[in-house]
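pinging the channel bc i need a second pair of eyes. not urgent but kinda urgent?? the chain im working w is below, pasted from the shared doc
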Amino acid sequence: MILILRDCPYLDTVNRDVLDFDFEKVCSVSFHNHNVYACLVCGKYFQGKSQDSHANYHCLQMDHHVFINLKTQQIYCLPDDYEVIDSSLDDIKYLLNPTFTNDQIKELDNNTKLSRALDDSKYLPGIVGLNNIKNTAYVNVIIQSLARIPTIRNFLLNVDNIKNNKSPLVQTFSELLRKIWNPKNFKAQVSPHELLQAIQNASQKRFNIRESSDPLDFLPWFLNALHKDLGGTKQPNSSIIYKAFSGDIQISTDKPIQKSIDGDDDDSSSDSENNEENKKSKIKYSNSISKQPFLFLTLDLPPKPVFKDDQDKSIIPQIPLFNLLSKYDGTTETILSNGEIKKYKILSLPNYLILCVKRFSKNNFFIEKEPTIVNFPIKNLDLNDYLPPGSPKSKFNLLATIKHEGDPSSGNYSVYVNHKGNDKWFEMHDLSIKETMPQLIAVSECFFLIYEKIN
C-alpha cells in the first residue's frame, strides 16, 4: 500500500531549471529503461524507488528527496516512500507529458499568444527550436515541416488516438509534437533525442544520429514507416499519412525493344550502303499505362547552365515552378538512363502537396549541387491545368519550405514555416529562429515545398 501525503517538507528543493525530459528515459547508473524515476532536485534519472534501488541510494548520498516516475507522472518522497500530492507540481507533470483537449487542438492555428519560459524568454507555441544532435539537421527540418500539417499534428496531439499503438516511432513522434506545441514549456527549445533513437532503430541504422543524410532519402522512409506503424495499407485513406499526402498519378511507359530489319532497297544509293551493311538497327517501343499513388512529387532541374557577365562573375539561373511542373502535364517526355520514355499525368491531388526539387546528383567521384533558384508562388498555386477535365478546382497555399545553403557535403538545412495565427513566416535552423519576409522565401534555394489545398 502506498502512503499518500499532501505536505512534503522538501518541495522547496525542487529545481525546475535542471529538469529536461527530452532525452531517453534510462537509468544513469544501470542504463535500464524500466521503472525509471527522475530526481527533481538535480534532474538525473535513476531506476526504482525501493530501499536497494539506485534512486534510493542517490537520495541518501546526495540528500535529494523528490522523484517523479517518468511513466506514471506520480511524485514520491524518498526514502520515506510516500506519494506527494501538491498542485504546485502540476507544471512539472505537464512538462513530462503534455496533453491537449480537442478544443485546444482546434484553436492551435488561431493562437497568437506568446508563452513565457523559465528564463523569462518568450516563444510562440509551435515555433520552437530543435537541438541538433551531431548531424541531424536533415531530420529537424522534416519534423518542423510535418508539425505544420493539421491532419497529422491534430491526430498525434490527441493521445487517445494512439494509446494502444506499440510503435516507438509513433509514440516518440507524438511526444515530440506535443512538446513543440506545448504552451507551458520550461524553455523555448526541444530536443528530438528520443525520436532520433527510434528512427535509428526502426531504420536499422540507415539513418544514424552521428551521420548526416539527404532529406530526400529520409522523408519517404519516414512517411512510409509511420503509415505502416499506424496500421496503414495500400488502400486510400488507410492512415493519416495517406489522408494527408496521398494522390494518384498516371504513368505511361515506352519500353525500348531492339529489333533488326533489312535495309530499304528503294534507291541505288541505299543499295550500295546496304551492300556494305546488310542490316541496320531500329528501336521500337512497347507501351504500358499504370496508375500509382504518390506521397510527393519530384521535380527535375534543367542541366546546369553557366553564364558569365562582362566581369566574369557567375550568374545563378532562375526558373519558374510551373516549368518544372510541366513534367506532370501528360505530354512531356522524361527519358530514363535505361532508354525508357515516361510521361506523367496527375489524376488527383492530396490535401497537402509535397514537391521535392532534386538539387543533388552523384557520380563516381563527388556529389554536385544545382544552385538554380526556383520561383514559386506562396499563395494561390493553381494546378488545375495539370488535372483531368472535370476535376475539382485545386489551389494551394504554402505551409513550409526547406532550403539548403552551402556545399553539398558541408552545407546547412533550414526551413521556413508559416504560423497561421498571425500569418507570419519564420526561418528555423536548429535552435535559431527569426522572423522573415515572404519575399525572401520565394528566392531561396528551395529543396522541399509543402502546400495546403484551400477551398
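so The chain has twelve helices and 28 strands. and The first strand starts at residue 3 and ends at 5. — does that match what u expected or am i reading it wrong
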